[in-house]
Automatic annotation (TrEMBL):
Signal peptide: none
Gene3D superfamilies: Medium-chain alcohol dehydrogenases, catalytic domain, NAD(P)-binding Rossmann-like Domain
Ranges where the Enoyl reductase (ER) domain occurs: 11-322
Protein name: NADPH2:quinone reductase
Provenance organism: Nocardioides alpinus
Protein origin, superkingdom: Bacteria
MF-aspect GO terms: oxidoreductase activity
InterPro entries: ADH-like_C (IPR013149), ADH-like_N (IPR013154), ER (IPR020843), GroES-like_sf (IPR011032), NAD(P)-bd_dom_sf (IPR036291), Zn-ADH-like_protein (IPR051397)
One Pfam match: ADH_zinc_N
């Protein structure tokens, strides 16, 4: 079978589509025929050997995937059946024609969603839910400011925040990204790096309750200045590539504000059953149409590397997807 592999961790340009042996399911794995694979930031880091998880090359990329159950194996008691549509997530391995994935990291895909949308769901939307509920303590009718709001995690956060009853303000860099964020569900959109004054005006000077930051860099200090009393910044990543921001803790003291780290993968993967609970939490939002993952681009398997370059250069809108079938 074909798989998208890192042979040498020298970046996305050197990714190869190779013939590999079909997977042999372990106990409690589900064997899935993959139709679509989500392109994720960990894939980019893995291609360069920069991720905290460092598999031995050659290894297969692919964090998110969607497809059809070929064999539920020992996971049959969990309810999966042959032919069932599913989505799944793991540290890697999904970018192949067939994948064996743990049942606890595999989810029933609602009929309303395509395989492309299913491959866009797990990592980004479960991260957004973890960030807003577990780490952010988001309450009904609070206001959430989302940086990088036209990207995969950004659009997921806009939609999950809406599903949790929040008002959303998207921060983006271009008019094209502004239109994309609005279509994804943003209530308000601010364009450009000088967002602080516009956000203060939109909130009548009060500020926002939660900031979700996947960008980092120079925007971080102004994000602190945008917080309302008891506000929380949720640090998800540093896509700006400008180094890790420094926090002057006197700002936290004066405003009774918090900076909180968001590490969904390390938390969720060590707690059996946690992801399934999260998926069930998202299900009513999917059913109501609040969650509908926006797909920015689709690619063939051979173009997985090109999709990662687009992500690295911040050209990606929403979630990019690679179609296996």
């Amino acid at each position: 079978m074909k798989a998208v592999q890192v042979v040498t961790p020298t970046g996305p340009a050197d990714i190869e589509v190779r013939e590999v042996d079909a997977p042999v399911p372990a106990a409690h794995d589900v064997l899935v025929e993959v139709h679509s694979v989500g392109v994720a930031f960990p894939d980019l880091l893995l291609s360069r050997g920069e991720y905290q998880f460092k598999p031995e090359p050659p290894f297969t990329l692919g964090v998110d995937f969607a497809g059809v159950v070929l064999d539920p194996g020992a996971a049959e008691s969990s309810g999966f059946t042959v032919g069932q549509r599913v989505a799944g997530v793991n540290l890697n391995g999904g970018a192949a024609e067939v994948v064996a994935n743990p049942a606890i990291f595999t989810f029933a895909l609602p009929d309303a969603l395509s395989y492309d949308e299913g491959a866009a769901l797990p990592m980004n939307y479960l991260t957004a839910l973890f960030a807003l509920e577990e780490r952010g303590g988001l309450r009904d009718r609070e206001t959430v400011l989302v940086h990088g709001a036209a990207g995969g995690v950004g659009t997921a956060t806009l939609q999950v925040a809406k599903g949790l009853g929040a008002r959303t303000i998207a921060v983006v860099s271009t008019e094209e990204k502004a239109a994309f964020a609005r279509a994804a569900g943003a209530d308000e959109v601010v364009i450009g790096p000088d967002f602080k004054d516009a956000v203060k005006e939109l909130t009548q000077g009060r500020g926002v309750d939660v900031v979700l930051d996947v960008v980092g860099g120079d925007a971080f200090t102004d994000s602190l200045r945008c917080l309302a009393e008891l506000g929380r910044i949720l640090v998800v990543g540093f896509a700006a590539g400008q180094g890790i921001p420094q926090v002057k803790v006197n700002r936290l003291l004066l405003g009774n504000t918090d900076v909180r780290g968001v590490g969904w993968g390390a938390y969720a993967m060590t707690r059996p059953g946690y992801m399934q609970k999260q998926w069930h939490r998202l299900a009513p939002m999917i059913e109501a149409g609040v969650i509908r993952p926006p797909i920015g681009a689709t690619h063939d398997m051979a173009d997985f590397g090109r999709a990662l370059v687009d992500m690295d250069e911040r050209r990606t809108l929403g979630k990019s997807v690679v179609r296996v079938r």
